[in-house]
């Protein structure tokens, strides 16, 4: 019973925070163009920190998710304003932003991830994406890798499980 109670408490805390609703899978963003990040709920419980929550573009296979670019901040403390437009830069610290499949990591408490979606840069169409055995496609992406999301879900579960263990102990 104690275990179940702890798990339910965790679920209640997690659901009190924001849930990202845009971009969704199938969304296509273009670098240099302002795009809306939308969410439901609010992060008022974070206090002042919730007024400037960083938003990062990430990608990579499960087990090796990597940071690509910081694209700004959102204020998720409001109960009425639940969107902010952000722009993916055409350039990152490592050169032109490559077209490909990415996700956003929003560093709220707890951290939130979007589903995978496409970001296009007409000036850097060839995405390497860290693949080793496949030949880069010359056409538009037709697959929607979901390994990053699977990893994120797995990590969240692992963290929740750890938290439960700590609470029980
Ligand atoms: C919502 O907040 C963002 C900044 O977080 C601001 O740019 C935008 O204008 C606000 N929208 C409204 C309707 O107040």
From TrEMBL:
<dbReference type="InterPro" id="IPR052982">
    <property type="entry name" value="SRP1/TIP1-like"/>
</dbReference>
<dbReference type="InterPro" id="IPR018466">
    <property type="entry name" value="Kre9/Knh1-like_N"/>
</dbReference>
<feature type="domain" description="Yeast cell wall synthesis Kre9/Knh1-like N-terminal">
    <location>
        <begin position="23"/>
        <end position="118"/>
    </location>
</feature>
<feature type="region of interest" description="Disordered">
    <location>
        <begin position="128"/>
        <end position="147"/>
    </location>
</feature>
<feature type="signal peptide">
    <location>
        <begin position="1"/>
        <end position="16"/>
    </location>
</feature>
<dbReference type="Pfam" id="PF10342">
    <property type="entry name" value="Kre9_KNH"/>
</dbReference>
<protein>
    <recommendedName>
        <fullName>Yeast cell wall synthesis Kre9/Knh1-like N-terminal domain-containing protein</fullName>
    </recommendedName>
</protein>
<keyword id="KW-0732">Signal</keyword>
